[in-house]
Design goal:
Layout (H helix, E strand, L loop, with lengths): L6 E4 L5 H15 L6 H11 L4 H5 L3 E6 L2 E9 L21 E7 L8 H15 L4 E7 L3 H6 L3 E10 L3 E11 L4 H5 L1
Parallel strand pairs: 4-5
Antiparallel strand pairs: 1-2, 2-3, 3-4, 5-7, 6-7
Length: 184
């Protein structure tokens, strides 16, 4: 894609503040049709949108244009922090790479940013020698993940402080060398 749509690169520690700010704004804006205000704020405040280890591991990517983060996401085989809050996290298999912290700017919905970042994540997972990936989709991200081939419908319920449940959906996809390119 053209530079008009931004360039994909690995995130650096210097990106952290901009990433977290974009993620919080995105979740507050795009997630509000699926989750209540209290749920979104409890997740942002107590769980967080970004595991800094993903940046340190060099498995986290951003799409950037004019010094603005337009989308981001990464992967890890390490259990995510949100698994500590999940009532039924058995679906999160640690030997399978977990796609994590995928967000697109709320100012650019439906511009293909989610597909582009997912294609980069899946290609990186394949380069690392894995042939499948799993994730816990937020309800707002579910249509994207289904459209690019993730399957599953098992609910994952995170019990957040204040008794607020955040429901996600456990999903998985078998990857092949062409799947990441088809998602782009």
């Amino acid at each position: 894609m053209s530079e008009r749509h931004g360039m994909i690169r690995r995130a650096t520690p210097a990106d952290r503040e901009a990433i977290v700010e974009m993620q919080a704004h995105s979740f507050r804006t795009l997630g509000r049709h699926h989750y209540g205000f209290e749920v979104i704020e409890a997740f942002i405040l107590h769980v967080g949108t970004l595991d800094p280890h993903l940046i340190e591991d060099r498995t986290f990517f951003v799409i950037e244009r004019d010094d603005a983060i337009l989308a981001c996401g990464g992967w890890s085989v390490r259990r995510p922090a949100y698994a500590l809050h999940a009532a039924n996290d058995a679906e999160l298999a640690p030997q399978v790479p977990i796609v994590r912290a995928v967000y697109a700017s709320a100012q650019m919905p439906r511009q293909g940013l989610g597909r582009r970042i997912m294609a980069e994540i899946e290609a990186d997972i394949l380069r690392a020698g894995y042939d499948r990936a799993c994730l816990t989709a937020t309800l707002s991200g579910l249509p994207l993940y289904r459209a690019i081939g993730y399957r599953g419908d098992a609910p994952v319920v995170m019990s957040l402080p204040g008794g607020h449940p955040l429901v996600g959906i456990a999903m998985e996809k078998r990857l092949d060398s062409g799947s990441a390119h088809r998602a782009a």
